[in-house]
Design brief:
single chain; 428 residues; mainly alpha; Growth Hormone, Chain: A; MFS_dom; transmembrane helix; membrane
């Protein structure tokens, strides 16, 4: 028997579209254009703060002189903030509304990136916490934003969002070390990323200020709590899969440059390789999301999860001179994120139910995933090697393959027709 949350009905455009009456067609077109611009700009900014810091961790540790505990904590802070700030996001959106919550998140992100300019370890930690809390709100809100403004094109817009996110991360990973060398300061190279975030805030502000507050009726979907979804098969599988992909992604984003530098690679080259990994994700996302839009979600999940497994195995077994190969596999494996976000966007029968699933998967997922970057960093420091941490990631990647297989079981036969109808033209 299929649970109600497991069904994927096409959202009603009338219910999802916040635009004013039909005679204001010019206003509606402007609103949709602004919403599309926000998707692109947010995507460009949402991994910049994490990816730029990862490329600069060796230089930051040398400059500020912090020990192994702080070194392990820094790549863990984003995951912890995504968990705990994500828990409050659904309530925040009920209080402020979706768009105003996103504007507040960008204020926090800009402020946090600016705080990291201060030349102390405590300010580096504080700025990271503030910035990552802003990112957490955006992470949870984006599936609902896509569902609200683009109900007929969830696959296409989620793909666009993921592609721009990968592009932003690739840019930040590739040029942060050269910027630090040019400015003679890794902290300045961190703070410079507050500029595009501020620009995004300026674009989001008009939509947030003009957005209408939507008051759900008593007993309506606006009262959805995320926790009962844990009692459903789909809720468990989405949460489990989101947890594993987050653990794998943030472990490799946080530590790949350090792994490669530890094995003898130049820091600039290591940062460029992390950027290359993110670039590989762009065409890979186009491929897997096109498959998903055509009802081949199982094939898309298998491509992403098996590529991630191959990436971690080859990263451990191949010499550092061949590090390009595992980064290609890992870049394809990163497409697990948009696939899970697409599954979240299509969950339930309303924007509020999608928000509940997003809040559940991201809050629980990031709490558990935080174990990865922190414990792996301490373990490698204690053992003086990355071999054991990498084999632990291989084991997690195997489990990810199994969960992806179970989540997508029966997708083609049961849902292909409906998904193609909902996303007509999304893959074109």
């Amino acid at each position: 028997m299929t649970e109600q949350v497991d069904s994927l009905p096409a959202p009603s455009p009338a219910a999802a579209d916040p635009a004013p009456p039909a005679d204001h067609s010019g206003y509606r077109r402007a609103t949709m254009a602004l919403a599309l611009a926000i998707v692109v700009l947010l995507g460009l900014n949402l991994r910049v703060a994490v990816a730029s810091a990862a490329a600069l961790f060796p230089a930051l540790q040398e400059l500020l002189g912090y020990g192994p505990v702080v070194a392990a904590l820094l790549p863990t802070i984003p995951v912890l903030c995504f968990a705990f700030a994500g828990l409050a996001t659904t309530r925040l959106m009920r209080w402020l509304g979706l768009e105003r919550s996103m504007m507040l998140a960008l204020v926090l992100l800009t402020a946090g990136l600016s705080i990291r300019l201060a030349p102390t370890t405590s300010m580096l930690l504080l700025g990271t916490i503030v910035a990552m809390s802003g990112l957490a709100v955006c992470n949870v809100a984006m599936p609902s934003f896509v569902r609200k403004y683009f109900p007929q094109r969830t696959a296409g817009i989620t793909s666009l969002y993921s592609i721009t996110m990968s592009a932003g991360a690739a840019l930040a990973s590739g040029i942060s070390v050269p910027i630090a060398l040019q400015l003679d300061s890794p902290l300045a190279a961190l703070g410079v990323w507050a500029i595009p975030t501020l620009a995004t805030l300026v674009v989001v502000a008009p939509l947030a200020i003009g957005a209408r507050r939507e008051k759900p009726e008593v007993g309506a979907a606006g009262q959805v709590s995320p926790w009962p979804l844990l009692a459903t098969r789909r809720g468990l599988l989405i949460t489990g899969l989101f947890t594993l992909q987050a653990l794998l992604v943030y472990s490799i984003v946080g530590w790949l440059p350090s792994i490669l530098v530890d094995r003898g690679m130049d820091p600039t080259a290591a940062g460029m390789l992390l950027g290359g990994l993110q670039l590989v994700t762009i065409p890979a996302t186009v491929l897997v999301m096109a498959l998903a839009a055509r009802g081949l979600l199982r094939a898309a999940f298998m491509i992403a999860s098996c590529a991630a497994l191959a990436g971690f195995v080859s990263l451990e077994l191949l010499p550092v001179q061949l590090a390009l190969l595992p980064t290609v596999f890992l870049g394809i494996g990163f497409t697990m994120f948009p696939l899970v976000m697409l599954s979240i966007s299509r969950s339930g029968e309303s924007v509020e139910e999608s928000s509940a699933m997003s809040s559940l998967a991201q809050s629980v997922g990031y709490i558990v995933a935080a174990i990865g970057p922190f414990s792996l960093g301490l373990l490698s420091s204690k053992l003086g090697s990355w071999s054991v941490p990498l084999w632990l990631l291989v084991a997690a990647a195997v489990l990810q393959v199994l969960l992806a297989l179970w989540l997508s079981a029966g997708t083609r036969t049961r849902r292909a027709g409906r998904l193609q109808q909902v996303d007509a033209g999304a893959g074109k």
